[in-house]
Design a protein that fits this description.
2 copies of one chain form a homodimer. Chain A is built from 13 helices and 17 strands. The first copy, chain A, has 3 domains: about 80 residues, Rossmann fold (3-Layer(aba) Sandwich); about 60 residues, Dna Ligase, domain 1, CATH 3.30.1490.20; about 180 residues, ATP-grasp fold, B domain (D-amino Acid Aminotransferase, Chain A, domain 1), CATH 3.30.470.20. Chain A is α+β, with helices and mostly antiparallel strands and about 350 residues long. In chain A, about 30% of the residues lie in helices and about 30% in strands. Chain A starts with a strand and ends with a helix. In chain A, strands 9, 10, 11, 12, 13, 14, 15, 16 and 17 form a 9-stranded antiparallel beta sheet that branches. A 4-stranded parallel beta sheet of chain A has the order 3-2-1-4, with helices on both faces. A 4-stranded antiparallel beta sheet of chain A has the order 5-8-6-7, sandwiched between helices. The interface between A and B is medium-sized, with 33 and 33 residues.
């Protein structure tokens, strides 16, 4: 089976590593000449809106999927004329616009921070008056890893904030005094069968995911599964979807969804019976889903900017290196380490070892 | 790091899948246009004795390794002028000739069936008189998966047997009434550090490996480790080496070694903390070795001739598919399944499920 992937970054690379043993071949559409997935398949070097490249991809593959959600709606519509596209267009439309996303949460009865649509500075002033400070102003589209957002702490931060983010459509979100951040990765097959990984407990630094620890019997697992199921069913979703939540007062408030494999699920490569990458491919290909059960105690640490020397990473017991083969650049996600241990105490010790290695720079 | 691999079959393919996350890139030299590793690296389409191709490979890679041992000695010598080659030439010279191999076992005090060098039918007649029947006549080189050998059960089988195998140098081996077949996969680093996987219990059908089950606390583990260590040290070996033994009277008799990753170690992809493929690459690259500890109870079943439908394989719980992307052909190794289970009883049940699927054809 030949799979077309829009995007050829590390998520595409890990999809190909998971899919090759299932007899899948990959074609990546990516305008970057050094797209790091290219080593594992065919690389269509073209823009996401290049009709000639899209047509060539559609004609040569059995289905198309995405490694990121910020794809023009026209791209999805164009491809869908020729070939099955998963996840379905509606999921992408919702997930790439924070206003649609939050509105869906509200419609489905999923608690989420207060929010308001912001089309002007006047809208912003009114929304701040209603929601209060602190609050976070975010562009409706194209935001990721803390980009395209601004925290408004005091009235002085508000004036001019809309222009600072480019005078593009935004939403304002009330600040949530959360005690933790968790994400649920789920996979739903073409037939509607759904499986859930254990909740990941996530730590962000400067808006970028730093550490994910797979939970065991998390008390909010069932609630998170309920919430994500509402979204999956409503969108008739196919593939892996990640749902990020704030832990607030012993409950959950929805932050955002990602209609794709997700950084907080990278631990599943070694830490789960069947990884999020394999399960996404199984789902979109109409194959039976794999087990989402944990294998040992597991965590993932991102390497940002650079990957420590390979021998130093591999010297740490229980540590698995995932180097993305990307050029090093400050703040860029260039690799991660997965830890898989016998017990939680060992896992904590190993996390400290990897963190110490990262700190050495 | 760029790795040159002589051979681009399934072993090369699985090496590339293991090495890509370590930031390794691969160049495969293989005369077959449809070499199944080619999807995961650069493919030099040339013979193993093509000096131009060998020079091009040597100039573009950091080191060269092998996915099979039947490489001309001249190839190894030629490459070694330009680039480090692992395992070392002497290992390949020994392992590809059954006479050298058995002679080494004898020299190192490792029990092995009686054997004799056969250069003519007269040699064979004399050897049969000395060793007795039944016995097995094998070509000294180029034999694998039961090819290049003939079982001699009665005197009538002996006459003309040397010509039947092509009148090439052979050895005669006394038949061993074994109770089981096991193999030990070990990895030795450039610095001499050595690690051992648990013994695999192997079942062959028609000379071809059918099923490997990873053992737990096998009573012969220590003995097998002693024997393989003698070989590793004597050859100053670097990389993964597999040693196949017969279980005889509660002890071990050496059958053969393979200076490479081995079919009986395929279960380590999911069934061990660090797979034989990753550990081979770590060893030849001078990186720290990974843990050879088991993760759960594990077994591997070969798919010969064809791979059952993907959805049927993936429907079996605890089952991981490894499709080699090769054209189906009677008897050809075209894929395998790894099972990884919580306990031995579940593993046996799952093995039966996969066997039933294979039997359905």
């Amino acid at each position: 089976m030949k799979i077309g992937v829009i995007g050829g970054g590390q998520l595409g690379r890990m999809l190909a590593l998971a899919g090759t043993p299932l007899d899948m071949n990959f074609v990546f559409l990516d305008p970057a000449p050094d797209a790091c997935a290219a080593a594992l398949g065919e690389h269509l070097l073209a823009g996401y809106d290049d009709p000639e490249a899209l047509r060539r991809m559609a004609e040569s593959v059995d289905l198309v999927t995405f490694e990121f959600e910020n794809v023009p709606a026209e791209t999805v519509a164009f491809l869908s004329q020729y070939v099955p596209v998963y996840p379905v267009a509606e999921s992408l439309r919702i997930a790439r616009d924070r206003w649609f996303e939050k509105s869906l949460f509200k419609e489905l009865g999923i608690p989420t921070p207060e929010f308001a649509d912001i089309q002007s500075q006047a809208d912003l002033d009114a929304a701040v008056a209603a929601i209060g400070l602190p609050a976070v102003l975010k562009t409706r589209t194209l935001g990721y890893d803390g980009k395209g957002q601004k925290v408004l702490r005091q009235p002085a931060d508000v004036s001019g904030a809309f222009a600072e983010l480019g005078s593009v459509p935004c939403i304002l979100e009330g600040f949530v005094p959360f005690t933790g951040e968790v994400s649920l990765v789920a996979v739903r097959g073409r037939d509607g069968e759904t499986r859930f990984y254990p909740l990941s407990h996530n730590t962000h630094v400067g808006g970028v995911l730093n550490l994910s620890i797979a939970s065991t019997d998390h008390p909010l697992q069932a609630l998170a599964e309920d919430y994500i199921s509402r979204v999956l069913t409503r969108l008739d979703y196919v593939g892996v979807l990640a749902f990020e939540f704030f832990e607030v007062d012993g409950g959950l408030k929805a932050n955002e969804i990602a209609p794709r494999v997700h950084n907080s699920g990278h631990w599943t490569i070694e830490g789960a019976e069947c990884s999020q990458f394999e399960n996404h491919l199984r789902a979109v290909a109409g194959l039976p889903l794999g087990s989402t059960a944990k294998v040992g105690e597991s965590a993932m640490l991102n390497f940002l900017g650079s990957v420590p020397p390979t021998d130093a990473v591999l010297r740490i017991a229980d540590c698995h290196l995932h180097h993305y083969g990307k050029a090093f650049k400050a703040g860029r996600k260039v690799g991660h380490a997965t830890l898989r241990c016998q017990d939680a105490a060992t896992l904590q010790a190993r996390i400290a070892e990897v963190q110490a290695l990262i700190a050495r720079g």
